[in-house]
């Protein structure tokens, strides 16, 4: 069953009922100001950091679900309704929510009145704009009231939901015409404020939640609206909100547009703390001046659309498969931008408080983002590397606002260092900008320790070399990519498996997966050494890589597939000898995509084992059989009921690893089949089972051992976005950025047909036509570039040429 449809022309997903199985959200903002908006107008806003600078309040775990947001109430006669249906839930005569690229648009009708609400964050301003147009579609004049409503968060979202003894006495606002300023904590610790304004003279306002909604009233039935209008309350402590009241009269056919702006402003850096507690309104007024007229708002919207159209032109495919086109050209790239911006911080499943930027997460997010805005990727790499320690290990997470490592979580995830090589290599392949390796970057943000970025990569590489276990495989530390595989965990206190370093840390358990990573990214490291003329270093690195390859092939091989790990007692994990958890997906995918076991036939075997033991109709499970009970020696992985999350769920993130591995072996049909199973556009028809948004990937789909087999969880913020984009764009469609140019190496089903990819690369546009007259699955036999045949599959870069017409025959 579907709850909407794709409108590819408009680059939108159109939701046709507010009663989606879960809230279906969108993200507004691409720079510093961000909002989450659901299909019923739920959500919240923040500036740069969802924990430290939360602007509006949201209640996770709310009842009804998703019941706080930016709301417009329309009181028309005795009926009060909202264009996004919540919170009144008044049945609408028409409802539609169009989630677009950086904006959401709601259209609703009730009793002859139409509301069209467009929400977006302008590219260059720290605000969200809500353009509300009301049209009288009835035959008679209409006189009605509009109320706006936002609830402020007292900045630090964690403090806001815990420290009531203080916070309920700190709230302060200022009212200046149509603008309501939220200035809590401005008098002492803060150098910023928020504001909510409308471009009309309001007929009333409220700034106290108790006055507007009412102490014991639900948001669906605010006191002020029920009792005849706003009360002019000025919040002092308690719960500051901003609500406007506007009286509107429309003749038949007439429309009126209001522009609401929720903004954030900062004072000049040199503000004196002892200065009186009066807001410097100049920055807010400057911003608001632009949005007093619909022309101002429309121009900002047009600019946003043009910005995205230009970005998406960087990779565009035209194939016979409409779903591939839709995902590649629109939604997959869009999700890559969102994961780049948010890492794993703020979604409807990440509270914006718990996790900031992940070291491994953000490194991987770069893979799907770097072609969009390489300059931002460059800065991100430097920020991430600045949280590395001198020994090559790294803070697992850092806070976006301060860019400081998160000491509560600490380090000890032994895959982290290698992802830095991976992210940097992806950046250099895309841009050819080797100069990034010379950037001076500190360890743990201590400026006294700056070294060239290249040295950071060396420490990453050496970290694995110097942290091996008894079999010569990399030590896993607290965990590797699989956060829940805690093999050095001896704590018998429930819930302690994913704790900070300490007694649970041990040096012995080993990871075959990190072995695969080391082989894959160690080769990149060696190439970077060679490029810097460090030939001995490059050679030594390759010797290490080959040694690891042999170790994985021997100590890491179980007979039919790759082992997952050795636990701290030297017991195998992910072996046919185990009672449960006999086979894991990660080493099969990663070792094969790293090229391990290809010539020995082990790669073929491993992938057949995946198909045989792990595949399901909704994707490949992370392991099988799922653990039926908790295992002290395995940790959090066995804390989940069978079929969920890391215990046998379909982790969408590592499905593309297997798909890429299949392309390494030339299996185009199978690679594409894997791609399709978790691809949102392909499973749109089962939205009632999948539940999460049909336009983006979720982290996990419940596996076949779970009660809700096929149900998606944790949509939006997942490395799946980047990895599926890499898979489809580079390995299946086969347009792969390499150090010396674009490599054309498709691997598709025999009947995929010809297709054309437009690709921006290093300042030039490539138009690449790929045909497959012989119906093969892999590789090209003829390559013509600007009319000249070239040998091999690499398009050489010619200085000064900005347009490449490429013809490739498979
Ligand atoms: C989840 C993992 C996640 C980890 C770190 C665990 O509870 O299962 O998917 O990576 O938490 O936050
Ligand atoms: C989600 C985390 O964000 C990611 O870092 C991790 O690799 C996966 N879960 C698997 O545990």
From TrEMBL:
<dbReference type="InterPro" id="IPR011013">
    <property type="entry name" value="Gal_mutarotase_sf_dom"/>
</dbReference>
<keyword id="KW-0808">Transferase</keyword>
<dbReference type="InterPro" id="IPR037825">
    <property type="entry name" value="GH94N_CBP"/>
</dbReference>
<dbReference type="InterPro" id="IPR008928">
    <property type="entry name" value="6-hairpin_glycosidase_sf"/>
</dbReference>
<dbReference type="GO" id="GO:0030246">
    <property type="term" value="F:carbohydrate binding"/>
</dbReference>
<dbReference type="Pfam" id="PF17167">
    <property type="entry name" value="Glyco_hydro_94"/>
</dbReference>
<dbReference type="GO" id="GO:0005975">
    <property type="term" value="P:carbohydrate metabolic process"/>
</dbReference>
<protein>
    <submittedName>
        <fullName>Glycosyl transferase</fullName>
    </submittedName>
</protein>
<dbReference type="InterPro" id="IPR012341">
    <property type="entry name" value="6hp_glycosidase-like_sf"/>
</dbReference>
<dbReference type="InterPro" id="IPR052047">
    <property type="entry name" value="GH94_Enzymes"/>
</dbReference>
<dbReference type="InterPro" id="IPR033432">
    <property type="entry name" value="GH94_catalytic"/>
</dbReference>
<dbReference type="InterPro" id="IPR037018">
    <property type="entry name" value="GH65_N"/>
</dbReference>
<feature type="domain" description="Glycosyl hydrolase 94 catalytic">
    <location>
        <begin position="307"/>
        <end position="734"/>
    </location>
</feature>
<feature type="domain" description="Glycosyl hydrolase 94 supersandwich">
    <location>
        <begin position="12"/>
        <end position="292"/>
    </location>
</feature>
<keyword id="KW-0328">Glycosyltransferase</keyword>
<dbReference type="GO" id="GO:0016757">
    <property type="term" value="F:glycosyltransferase activity"/>
</dbReference>
<dbReference type="InterPro" id="IPR010383">
    <property type="entry name" value="Glyco_hydrolase_94_b-supersand"/>
</dbReference>
<dbReference type="Pfam" id="PF06165">
    <property type="entry name" value="GH94_b-supersand"/>
</dbReference>
